[in-house]
Design a protein that fits this description.
heterodimer; A: four-stranded parallel β-sheet; four-stranded mixed β-sheet; 11% strand; B: alpha+beta; 44% helix; elongated
């Protein structure tokens, strides 16, 4: 039996977006009709809770549970935001959903909005996704015209305004509270928590923020039920997952597969293995801010639970592969350069520590590494932990570095001892 | 002075947000779309419309990668320098573009045709190395391909 691919199975093969007609022919907006006509908001939330859908932005937080955090007597307007600020290096999964099937996201948002009693919703899209922006604008106009958005949706009494916000670019905007500041027209610094966004979020009002892939799953759960969704998966974490691979593999790409396929399956079957002439050394399983996995982890199932047991995080599920012709120190330098540049400067361990680490790694690559450098690097990774910083940027930056120090220690030492990068 | 068109486009954003201040990023991007960049004068005019000081606006403008406070060329080249593109040789592509155009990253060509900028991951890592020119993304770059693509932007 072919694998079910609810998120991508209906997409066109020519790369164009599904328009409203095609989306409806494929069963689109049936879930919204069903929910508005025959389900209470609580019933929608309960279905999603029981599906065990976990947030696809990287943290894996249970979506249905998140929706219950808005207090029942909370003031209006209430907000919902689709986090479409896909800026995690090595991640290219939401782009596919946004460009290929914007109505799927809009329907998911209308359902999430109904479940959380939301009045106004935003799609927070990164500024560089211009093609996605054009397609979303078109889909929004179609959805408003067809009565799936706006006042009194499908004569249900429920109303939702949905707007597109095109960002001006900064990694921090993907952080939940940084995103809210950006939407308010401010610098995207993170906010102190509590209060958490469901209590006091956008413009001080109750706000739910979900990732694009998460929201795209909702209509399918409402249509087919929680049990169906749980059964799509091969593991405890339910559903399908958009997995990807980049780096020197034969067929870099993106695939919707049952949650819980192994790293090896992704690497060897779907990505076609390593390119001729290079050998596998390791990979970041889900974006720049995840710990390296190496040979011994190839049979780990790619889901939130198992990858965590292996000492990393599934993150966004789009893996970045390191080969033996690429310098691991250079790769980590590239990553830490990114984090140092994108740090908003709000907390000391982040703005000071990341810059320091980047300079050490640069020096190492340029043959100026010092014997004490590895201890300094390790110290910083232990310092960039939740509790020392407002947000997850620096803790995320620690992950590839701490694991590289563990798995590629000899390579770091060679840089220092030989006073050069052996790969140059 | 804001052009009538700029003003109309900015005002069209007002109903999307409960405060005018929230429109400021959109407003700066709208002005930039028409003029290429956001000058001090433009900040003052936007500030007047939104009830914000020039300094507040500058604080926001300087935070974001895609708001330019200096003039740029007719076309802006954004070359991805993040990890997947780096593994696939982004350094080489950057050096090639830089030599061909005769500018360092961050600079504009003397004829005002191109500005070359590094950019963070563009989310097309299965087609690394990648660059964007203005609104279009270009995939699987090689030096030859870069040469051909640049020819299309006059």
């Amino acid at each position: 039996m072919p694998t079910e691919r609810p998120l991508t199975g209906n997409m066109r093969t020519d790369g164009e977006a599904l328009d409203l007609d095609a989306y409806e022919r494929a069963g689109g907006y049936r879930a919204l009709r069903k929910a508005l006509q025959s389900m209470t908001p609580e019933a929608v939330t309960d279905e999603v809770k029981s599906s065990n859908l976990r947030g696809r932005g990287g943290a894996g937080f249970p979506t249905g549970l998140k929706w219950t955090f808005v207090p029942p007597n909370a003031p209006h307007p209430r907000y919902l935001v689709a986090n479409a600020d896909e800026m995690e290096p090595g991640t290219f999964k939401d782009r596919l959903l946004l460009e290929g099937d914007p109505h799927q996201l809009i329907e998911g948002m209308a359902l999430a909005g109904y479940a959380t009693n939301t009045d106004v919703a935003y799609i927070f899209l990164r500024g560089e996704y211009k093609l996605a922006a054009r397609r979303i604008e078109k889909a929004l106009a179609e959805a408003y015209r067809a009565g799936y958005l706006g006042k009194n949706i499908l004569s249900s009494g429920y109303s939702l305004e949905l707007y597109l916000h095109l960002s001006a670019g900064r990694y921090m905007c993907g952080e939940e509270t940084g995103l809210l500041n950006a939407l308010e027209g401010k610098r995207a610094n993170p906010r102190a928590k509590p209060p958490f966004p469901p209590v006091s979020g956008l413009f001080g009002k109750p706000t739910t923020v979900n990732n694009v892939e998460t929201l795209c799953n909702v209509s399918h759960i409402v249509n087919n039920g929680a049990a169906w969704f749980r059964n799509l998966s091969r593991s405890k974490d339910s559903g399908t997952k958009l997995y990807g691979a980049s780096g020197k593999v034969k067929r870099p790409g993106i695939w919707e597969l049952p949650m819980g396929v192994t790293v090896r399956e992704l690497l060897e079957e779907h990505a076609g293995g390593m390119r001729d002439g290079v050998r596998f050394r390791g990979l970041l399983p889900g974006g720049a801010s995840t710990d390296f996995l190496v040979e011994q982890h190839l049979d780990v199932a790619m889901d939130f639970t198992e990858v965590q047991k292996a000492g990393s995080r599934m993150g966004t599920g789009t893996m970045i592969v390191l080969d033996d012709q690429t310098c691991p120190v250079g790769m980590v330098w590239n990553l830490e350069h990114f984090f140092a540049q994108e740090s908003c400067g709000w907390c000391t361990p982040c703005w000071s520590g990341l810059g320091w680490v980047e300079r050490i790694l640069k020096a190492m690559e340029e043959g100026r590494g010092q014997p004490g450098d590895l201890d300094k690097l390790a110290f910083q990774t232990r310092f960039w932990t939740p509790g020392h910083t407002f947000c997850a940027l620096a803790p995320g930056a620690a992950e590839p570095l701490q694991s590289a120090l563990k798995y590629f220690r000899a390579d770091f030492e060679r840089h220092i001892n030989e006073k050069r990068c052996p790969w140059r | 002075m804001l052009a009538r068109e700029e003003r109309t486009e900015i005002e069209a954003e007002f109903p999307h947000y409960p405060t005018r201040k929230a429109v400021c990023i959109d407003a700066m991007k709208i002005v930039q779309k028409h003029r290429g960049w956001v000058s001090d004068e433009a900040l003052r005019d936007i500030g007047e419309l939104l009830g914000m000081s020039e300094t507040d606006l500058d604080g926001v403008a300087t935070f974001y990668n895609l708001i330019f406070r200096r003039p740029v060329g007719r076309h802006v080249i954004y070359l991805c320098d993040s990890v997947s593109c780096w593994i696939m040789g982004a350094d080489l592509q950057c050096r090639h573009a830089s030599e061909r155009l005769g500018v360092q990253p961050g600079e504009t060509t003397a004829d005002g045709r191109f500005t070359l900028l590094p950019i963070v991951c563009l989310g097309a890592c299965d087609h690394a190395p990648v660059m964007m020119i203005d609104d279009d993304t270009h995939f699987d770059l090689t030096p030859e391909k870069i040469d051909q693509i640049l020819e299309r932007y006059k």
